[in-house]
Give the backbone structure.
Amino acid sequence: MLNRLLLLGVCFTLVSVPVSLSAQQRGTVTGTVVDVATQRPLVGAQIQVLGTQLGTVTNQQGRFVIPNVPVGTREVRVTILGYTQATQTVQVTADAPATVTLAVRETAIAVEGVYVTASGETQRRREAGNTVGTINPAELELTSINNVAQLLTARSPGVTVISSSGTTGGSQRIRIRGSNSVSLSNEPLLIVDGVRLNNSAESNSFGVGGQTISRLNDLNPDEIENVSILKGPAAAAMYGTAAANGVIQITTKRGRAGSPRWSLVAETGVLWDPTEYPINYGWRGTLPNGTANNQCTLFRLSTNACVRTGELLTFSPLDAATPFRNADNFLGKDRAGTQNKLGLSVAGGSETFTYFVSGDRETELGNYPNNEQERLNLRANIAARLRENFDLTITTGWTNNYISLPQNDNNLLGQVAGALLGNAVDDTIRRGYAGDAPDRLAQLKVDQDVRRFLGGLNANFRPLQWLSLVAQGGIDGLFRSDGQTLPANTVRSSALNLLGFRGSNRAQFINYNLSLGATASHPLNAEITAQTSAGVQFQREELQRTDAFGRQLLAGTERLSGTSSQFAVDELYEDNRTIGAYVQEQLGYKDRLFLTVAARGDDNSAFGADFGLVVYPSASASWVLSEEAWFPEQNIVNSLRVRTALGTSGLRPTFRDAISFFTPVSAAVNATDVPAFTVGGIGDPSLKPEFTREIEAGFDVGLLRDRLGAEVTYYNKRSRDALIFRPLAPSVGAARGALGNLATGRFENIGKVSNTGWEVLVRAQALNLRNVRWELQGTFSNNNNKLIELGEGVTPIIFGLGANTQRHTPGFPIGGYWDRRMTSFDDANSNGIIEPAEVVLTDTAEFIGNPNPGREYAFATTLTLFEVARLNVSIDGKGDYVLNNSTRFFRCASAFVNCREAYDASAPLEDQARAVAAATTRGVYFEDASFVKLREVALTLMAPTSWNERLRVSGLSITFAGRNLKTWTDYTGFDPELNWAGGSNQSVSDFLTQPQLRYFTTRVNLNF
Amino acid sequence: MIRHRLYTTAILAVVFSVAPACESALEVEDPTVAAPGTVSTEAAVPTTLNAAVGAFQLAYSGAPGGGSFIDSQVTTSGILSDELHISESFPTRIDVDQRETRFDNGTMLQAYARLHTARRLAEFSADLHAQFPATTNTAGHAHALALAGYTYVLFGENYCSGVPFSTFDDAGAVVYGEPLTTAQIFEQAIVLFDEAIAAATAAGSAGGEALNLARVGKARAQLNLNLPADAANSVGAVPTSFVYRIFHSTGTARQNNGIWGANQNRRGVSISDAEGVNGLTYRTDADPRVRQQRGTGTSAFGFDNTTPLYLQLKYPAQTSSVILASGLEARLIEAENQQRTGGPWLATLNALRAAPPAYYPAAEYPNIATLTPLADPGGAASVNLLFKEREYWLWLTSHRVGDLRRLMRQYGRTEAQAGWPTGSYFRGGNYGAHVSMNIPFDELNNPAFSAAFPNGCDATVP
């Protein structure tokens, strides 16, 4: 079937094109692209000779040269992001170059511009029936963006970056248009220069209590030229069985024809934790068995579980004058981390060869002594026009990324956890910490060293005027070394830990992708053009990992040979392959109405043996109404495009999900260790991909001479055959999984999920005067996520922190918080204390809230004065979601109970009621987490032109920026942007998680 | 025109040459796991028995793992009853300690699921033994059947009535089982033990250990069915010196002793003493069969830093083995029958006290010194005495919940009279009324179970 689809596409392409084209005389077109208002030359504009495959990009002076253009009357078109499109007719002769100046007008909304398609070719935004989110880092380089997650945060409506913690090197979750999948990853597909990347948000093998590492942040934002975001299957159908969660397309910087242009960036900054941590409370008392105890809570008093014998106790391990206070190994409020960055790049070239080379080293020391990141990025991109009809682009990137993570979250080895769950009195051993004291905890070292190579190749061959062939290949070679070391006799939390240990896990993840495509362009008549594309693609994702571990570590060593007992080894292997073929036909009418239909077929090695090929059809329409002759000429609506797209995409099962297998283990039989096995999984041989269909519709409008613009999009996305890790009745006897995290279930195509929502982007040029320029941008998006079906007879899936705080229940959002709700409380006996009988709970667990934001909004403004000063302010927020404040639950109702309302009768009654009710339900601490943050303020001072000339540089600026400056929220935890489980797919809770840090940075940019 | 055709031909040639390679490009070799067929051969029969033993160990006596400890039948039944109490922070374990075994308790789901996996792997091994003539009547076959039988016994004793027993095949097809009543579970256990006895007997001297293992298991099931005479008869030939141990090692994390892991390593459970007023005085009696001591230094308190930690010394190391069945248990079963029938039950008990069996190598666990003989207190106290002897001899071997339920079911005791903790719970609130573990929520995915128990089973029924 796949082969037939492939052949059909190629044959259709080749027979449908006209064959009357013959050899012609050739000439050259040269010209310049300028901003019509300022007459400034524009760099990076796409130039296309219509009716041919000929085109180029303007150089650093805004100039271009296109040789080999057939003589005659030709139309030349310029497309550049953020400007209107312009077309001009030129007379090409064989005698002399035809020269043209193309003037374009800046617009608030980017209707024009191009993005890279699945086949590696470029497509104009106006031709696409879907919206394409665009982020241009050049606009942001004068702020304090230090990783790609920050680059994506609140920039494009519908793209939600959900931070997890303030941990340096920590992960985050990225959701585009909500969560599609119950059990598979919801992270989008990440492509850099045509290379499909490992985009795991949980890429570390040694636990630190919850936080994880994201491979997204291996990338250096300063290398990025632009980011295009395809938000769902309506846009990404051609990516096949990988793109249901959307696609993030990153293009790194390229050289431009011209003399070498050097850029130097140097940045330094400080970061610290602004959180005011609460103190610990207690009350001395006696238990019924006579045991003395400091936890004689109001609740225990009321149930006669203790008798008070003392007074209210208070103590704060973090504030106390212990030997650790303000020492280097201690998390103190005054301890600041640092951030430093130094980068140098050079770009340039000729009309036939361009290059971009950069190197960048960045270090960040978190505010824990064992938390740091040191990243080195090197990049070399070259593009060559080997022949007039053959372009070759090679991109290479190298990353060294060292990350050391602290213990935190669901883990008493964490310093915050130890303090917050600690005692209300000091002691000489632990100094009030629940676990060990900080000096000991700091000796537990968990780190990761990554070496990563990204290599991409794009060859574009135009053998005929109407035919373009593209070959694209990529490799992502990721070599990861995870280590953990604990010296003996330091951490005393368990007998095994006292022995000390060393673990070393070495993994290599190799992703390959290769695609071959052909595109034929041909006019059907004077007004209608047709473009036919077809191609094949192959992807492979391979993992090989070897783990080694031992205890009783020799002092002063970090080597496995220094361990002397309890050795453990393991190997992991995964190999997933996809092969696909696609065909696409696009019809254009007068370059203002575009209709596209396409289909892609995929087969995958993880599909069940009983399943064959999946086909993803798609169609879209785009109509630039404002270019129609009948569109009224007026000064209010300058441009208007309506668009709609319908597309489908999928997510593949993961390795071994479709097969039954046993996993080798060791067993002790008659006091001897012997080989054995256990259940690895029982697969479903009919397993097929999760299939997601999306329809979107919207419009782009430019108003008031394009000084105000808006993009509005509605989407409706529905996944069927959703791959659910459905619980099997445990009596089946097929429990599998990690030792401490057993799962009894298997993947089946049984679910249905829907996501609907609106996305609005508004941009305005409030002022565009000679010396004052004021721009504003606002975004809004909402998402209504619902699990429609979970499969017949399948019980709601219960999971989350504490193993029972979240549920996948049909009719409600995926992973919603469920528990009994407190409906009322009343101090009926008026004793000033809320007792168990004075709170009223629902009889059963109820849906309390969605852990994923249902609304997101952002506002950013830039004020530029006299071309020498620029002020950026960005504010963003999320709403309509709930966060499990498990930190407070544990402080008020767990074995560590030490919050004020648990002891102090003068605490607010509502707080007391929650603490009392928490003995029965955690639901009382599922809190509204809606927030607004003053995310960033950046002031940039730019050297005037005269200074630059005197210094012989082309640009010099200094930026002072602050990040995470203020939060407005009703959430009672430390920060509403927290998740104990890092980049976990569904598990979300705030549990002893390090809050977001505040940054102040100074950055110098120098171009010469 | 010529160029057009040339390129057309070239592209088609490439496509035709690439297309047949598509299928082979998707073929993935996976040498790191075993397909069902590879462990269903005659050569794999011994390995299947190893798998059954390994899975039973994990289900029965657990492992430290997962940053906490693996909930096993020994620790779970100890926490639910008066043997152990929680000294850590897991709310899901506190629920069990407080005798409120929530239906949706995800932590306890794992203990239940592991026991079923142990049962399924034991059955798988037994079935494979039966397929091949050379292995059908061997000690290995009997061993696998006996282990399967013990999983039924543990389900019957520790879980409420209604446990179903399902299966799956190599192709991934699931066959859901009907819920069985507590009595039916023990009856099924007896069927398996009888098969084990037959296979062990046919195996001759090689089957001796499996034979006695099955005899004690059968008697234990019979005792649960209130058939003490049959039970005594079943173990009559079991020598007091017989012992079957579940072994632990430091080979891999899953092989460590989980009881040691929960208590000494994690500091998550502590030894109870008159828990909930009615519990046995495990600590204050200072009985050598209940070896324990107060922790010191960093082990003075549990993981919660508040609950005093008492360390059990029955399993003092990661490698300590756990007794599943023994001749001692056989004598205790006989003593119970004797007590019910007016026989010399006290003499039987005192004989054990006079010569405590030495089941462990001295290096692993010091022998218990001779104990002073008991006197018959008479009346209901005689039953209490007998059961106290059982609980002390069989401490931390997952017998206590079954015995407490038998005291209610067979001896007409109330919860308090039986010894269940009642009244005020030490962390606040009161003890609940559960006398068994609930069957977890996920079992509702079995249509037979959900039809019979849409709201879960009744954990208050003894």
